[in-house]
Design a protein that fits this description.
Subcellular location: Membrane
GO cellular component, one term: membrane
Strand content: under 5%
Number of helices: 15
Protein name: Transmembrane protein 104
InterPro entries: AA_transpt_TM
Order of helices and strands: HHHHHEEHHHHHHHHHH
Family: Belongs to the TMEM104 family.
Length: 465
């Protein structure tokens, strides 16, 4: 969307953030209680906004660093071209700040920013964090599609089923899930071995399908509640469900790793932080509407891991075509994203082990890297299809690093780098509203607290079992 106005760019950000994580949010809300869920959702939305402004500031600082390098090369070239006895033309001082300083004009991805501002250990840790997050993403996608297909083709009534229940004759539900998983792997797995290009129109279609599905679900839930058919009586607070809720909320606000692709093409970047804040407000309102209509429409024990499956029942949606569209909607949207995420993960593996001037043997490049990309998430999906737990763990650990730790260190190191390079030069016009170092420390402290809380909760839960 190169050259588009700010509002269009923010629509893309809205579409990016509101994705698969939103479909697992209703069950997480019902498990943790509506009040604690609302408070945590608002707070985590605020924290995500803080780190989003951190990334935008680091992007501006990275652009300034490239600008200064270009100026230095220009200065050296101008000096070399002038004869020794000829007076040298004056080159503008970088302290005055040329037009390109702190303007977000070049798309600089987070990996490039990490290479600019981190040492070698920091860069490697960055890629490890990204890789773990993408593995979690692929495991969620690999489980979500077979789960949706299993629920739609095996569901006969509105009650919950066990994995050992029958699906088709002697075939159990868990067997049907694994058959669908095998088919999913055979159909989409080979894309990991090639490059995925020209997905623009496919992404437009899937975005349109997503919004049609979200609107239908909200309208159906509101209609049932208005007719007095709402069965949900969610608790006020249930602390045992906070662990998964935290991971789901972090995962649902994830956009920091894609900000360079979203922000850079926007033509007008005036008041960017304010407009992003309004975008987050709309996302919060949407998440609240989706989750609250869900938890008051359906009983907590009836809510599925994938919320769309609650509408694949004839007693909820009478029109068969609509019922199958909602039940199978994740299949279409997730299937288009899986190859893109897989290729991204494969390329990150290559970058992590890249050596200057070196190339990989054909077997390593075309076989080994795609294999280590594809096999682990498929194995995880084979072992479990608990989507709420997969989203929760991915968000609580790798998501914690991408959304909090990496942006905090990026903005801290970029500020130090800018001070050393520019001295008393122009200020960063895209500086975060949270300029004080306190906010960097607060974000890191919060990330550490969340890591310890989730880990302790998992350990205690396993001990009780």
């Amino acid at each position: 969307f190169s050259g588009e106005v700010t509002e269009v760019g923010l629509v893309y950000m809205f579409n990016l953030i509101v994705g698969t994580g939103a479909l697992t949010m209703p069950k997480a809300f019902a498990t943790a209680g509506w009040l604690v869920s609302l408070v945590l959702l608002v707070f985590l939305g605020f924290m995500s906004y803080v780190t989003t402004t951190f990334v935008m500031e680091a992007m501006a600082a990275a652009n300034a660093r490239l600008c200064w390098k270009r100026m230095e090369r220009h200065k050296v070239g101008a000096t070399a071209a002038v004869p020794p006895l000829t007076p040298r033309p004056k080159v503008p001082s970088q302290r005055r700040g040329p037009p390109c300083v702190f303007e977000i004009t070049d798309r600089i991805e987070m990996g490039q920013m990490a290479s600019m501002f981190f040492n070698k250990v920091g860069v490697n840790l960055f890629y490890v964090c990204i890789i773990i997050y993408l593995y979690g993403d692929l495991a969620i996608y690999a489980a979500a599609v077979p789960v949706s297909l299993m629920q739609v083709t095996c569901m006969e009534d509105g009650r919950q089923h066990n994995d050992t229940d029958q699906c088709w004759g002697p075939v159990r539900r868990i067997d049907a899930y694994r058959i669908y998983l095998a088919a999913f792997t055979l159909l989409l797995g080979p894309f990991t071995f090639f490059n995925v290009q020209k997905t623009k129109y496919l992404q437009i279609v899937t975005s349109l399908m997503r919004w049609i599905a979200f609107v239908i679900m909200i309208i159906v839930a509101l209609t049932r509640i208005g007719r007095g058919q709402g069965e949900g009586h969610p608790p006020l607070a249930e602390l045992s469900g906070v662990r998964n809720l935290f991971g789901v909320c972090v995962y649902s606000f994830m956009c920091q790793h894609s900000l360079p692709s979203l922000i850079t093409p926007i033509s007008s970047k005036r008041h960017l932080a304010l407009l992003v804040f309004l975008d987050y407000g709309l996302i919060l309102a949407f998440y609240s509407l989706l989750a609250f209509t869900a938890i008051f429409c359906f009983r907590g024990d009836a809510l599925m891991d994938m919320y769309t499956l609650n509408f694949a029942r004839s007693d909820v949606v009478s029109l068969p075509l609509l019922r199958y569209f909602l039940g199978l909607f994740p299949v279409f949207t997730i299937s288009t994203n899986f190859p893109i995420i897989a290729v991204t993960l494969r390329n990150n593996w290559k970058t992590l082990f890249h050596r200057e001037g070196g190339t990989y043997p054909w077997v390593v490049d075309r076989v080994a890297f795609p294999t280590i990309t594809l096999v682990p998430p498929i194995l995880v999906a084979f072992c479990t299809h608990d989507l709420e737990a997969l989203v929760g763990v991915t968000g609580a650990y790798a998501g914690n690093g991408i959304q909090y730790v990496i942006p905090a260190f990026l903005v801290y190191c970029s500020r130090r780098d800018s001070r050393l390079a520019a001295g008393g030069g122009p200020p960063n016009r895209h500086a975060s509203p949270f300029r004080h170092t306190f906010w960097v420390g607060f974000v890191l402290a919060w990330a550490l607290f969340c890591f310890l809380f989730v880990t302790a909760n998992i350990v205690l839960s396993e001990t009780k079992l």
